[in-house]
């Protein structure tokens, strides 16, 4: 099979633990670029040793954030780019599916693809439960990450938040998946989602901000934004309706962990609103560090 005419843009910041597995999975693509945020753990050295081009990124605290900055500033050999995190890798089935889409020099009739993720949690691959779709394969000239009113919000940092790029044209969806396998200790999952819940709570505290960010979310995200009793509904959806129980203890742990994440958002939002009512000014939640 000829190499896929897709440039892979891998997001890294101190990812020495998992970057090797990610890059070794990308042999079918004709260009791999690691966009690194000043790692000090050897990530850039490992990436170069494995043949990837390395571009350094230093966030200035403003827009564009990291992914849009790449669309604006990183030259690629191809018009199609695939955004990956360092703990993600395309499955063999996805490579085969993309080979059919891009065979004989053709470009797909769509301008972006939403790709489902297969999660690993507590060291086990989850075959059931909640499924995430990411719009991460895009034609660079037909997609743009919107600028949101979230620069003063704690929790996300240099990467775009939980919203999709805006696409000027039809959207496709693959059947095959990206594998998301975080090699870090489970505590880092909770640390990240503690920060993410700060961001989500601050977004929801301002109706105009919530509406603009919700509009840029996936169809799945837009629907879930309207659901009441999110922690309970999510658990029932993921563990029962989507048969997360078939994944054993890991399926239970994952459903509980994400239900707790939505509970955190609701609790922090309640605190923000209580603070505004009592003092007339927003309460700033305390966080530390940047998002991964």
UniProtKB/TrEMBL annotation:
Domain Glycosyltransferase 2-like: from-to ranges: 7-112
Keywords (A to Z) from UniProt: Transferase
CDD domains hit by this protein: Beta4Glucosyltransferase (cd02511)
An example Gene Ontology molecular-function term: transferase activity
PANTHER family hit by this protein: GLYCOSYLTRANSFERASE (PTHR43630:SF2), POLY-BETA-1,6-N-ACETYL-D-GLUCOSAMINE SYNTHASE (PTHR43630)
Listed name of the protein: Glycosyltransferase family 2 protein
